[in-house]
Amino acid sequence: QVQLVESGGGLVQPGGSLRLSCAASGFALDYYAIGWFRQAPGKEREGVSSITRDGNTYYADSVKGRFTNSRDNAKNTVYLQMNSLKPEDTAVYYCATGRDRGSSYYRLRGVRVADFGSWGQGTQVTVSS
After folding, report:
1. Distance of alpha carbon 56 from alpha carbon 120, whole angstroms
2. Among the residues of the chain, which ranges form H helices?
3. Any alpha helices (H) in 44-124, and if so which ranges?
4. For residues 68-107, b (16+ Cβ closer than 10 Å) or e, as one string?
5. Alpha-carbon distance 63 to 58, whole Å?
6. What is the Cα 34 distance to its own chain's centre?
7. How big, in percent rounded to 5, are the helix, strand and coil portions of the chain?
8. What is the rounded CA–CA span in Å between residue 97 and residue 5?
9. What's the pLDDT band for 106 if we cut at 50, 70, 90?
10. pLDDT digit string (tens) for 32-87?
């Protein structure tokens, strides 16, 4: 069965940290670029970060300097380390696979929902005191 499974979400206080995991089964993640997205209640899904097959990363301005995207192809897993979390980071976080369009593309276009296809089920991140 081909699937992506996110984990690592939870409740954290402002300023805290979480590490999300995106594990693939039934296929090899290293053939794809991986995007991280989030969706808050009543808002559209937005791109947070991407990582290309060779490990080049892109971050939305809202998370730059606080989030780190990395991949471990041996474990078939991608990670999103989230530090200095803010209440506005509260959302369901998703990972998704997409054709690797190269780092320049993501720098110019951002992380777009339309560029990614297979999605996980999401993991809830709540930042609150």
Report:
1. 22
2. 103-109
3. 103-109
4. bbebeeeebbbbbebeebeeebbbbbbbbbbebeebebbe
5. 10
6. 7
7. 15, 45, 40
8. 12
9. very high
10. 999 999 999 999 999 999 999 999 999 999 999 999 999 999 999 999 999 999 99
Q: How far apart are CA 126 and CA 92, in angstroms?
A: 8
Spatial separation of the C-alpha atoms in residues 6 and 62, rounded to whole Å: 21
N- to C-terminal Cα distance for the chain?
39
Q: Which residues pair with 58 in a beta bridge?
A: 50
Please tell me the distance from the alpha carbon of residue 106 to that of residue 59, in angstroms, as a whole number: 9
- pLDDT higher than 90, residue 2: no
Largest CA distance in the chain: 40
**Sequence letter at residue 51:** I
Cβ proximity of 12 and 127 under 8 Å: yes
Q: Which amino acid is at 112?
A: R
The first and second tokens of residue 104, run together, are: 């320049």
